[in-house]
Amino acid sequence: MDKLVISSYDEFAAYLGKNLGVSDYVELTQERINMFADATLDHQWIHVDTERAARESQFGTTIAHGYLTLSMLPYLWNQIIDVRNLKMMVNYGMDKMKFGQAVKSGQAIRLSADLHAIENLRGVTKAQIKFAIEIKDCPKKALTGIATFLYYFE
User: Fold this and answer.
1) Where would I find the H helices in 2-144?
2) Backbone φ and ψ of 75, nearest 5°
3) Is 86 in contact with 10 (CB distance < 8 Å)?
4) How many CB atoms lie within 10 A of CB 17?
5) Which of 59, 106, 111, 122 holds its CA 20 to 30 A away from the CA of 86?
């Protein structure tokens, strides 16, 4: 997949209201889920106990943490866009974030992103990205929202 290459506010602003791209799929394996549980100290059985989840969960298997799904955003975003001529990028916030569907262990997710809004704040580009994390072969989205980034171009 070809990445969108952006080097300035004006180049970015040209995509206002448009789809910026779609990432490749990445699988959320049980190993990745377990590592996230270890990193966050969230070992709830629905995420890490495969036998109990198979018996007791409505999903029939373990599911990824919602925040694991969210944490994949930077990796997937970097597959869509290559921002050049940059001093620094800062995560500024999340709005209207909604977990719509659990991601089962072994399912693959990808990111679709649109440029929702853009502002020039005294030389700093504030970009609001409307995003959806989709689950392969599933009609419901795992996660939707608006991510706001501050880009400091040189």
Assistant:
1) 9-13, 30-40, 45-48, 50-56, 66-71, 73-80
2) -60, -45
3) no
4) 10
5) 111
pLDDT for 19-78, tens place per residue?
999 999 999 999 999 999 999 999 999 999 999 999 999 999 999 999 999 999 999 999
* Structure-block tokens of residue 36: 């996230």
Of 138, 14, 148, whose CA–CA distance to 77 is shortest? Answer: 148
| Pair type for strands 108-121 and 19-22 | antiparallel
pLDDT tens string 85-136: 999 999 999 999 999 999 999 999 999 999 999 999 999 999 999 999 999 9
Q: Which residues share a beta bridge with 9? A: none
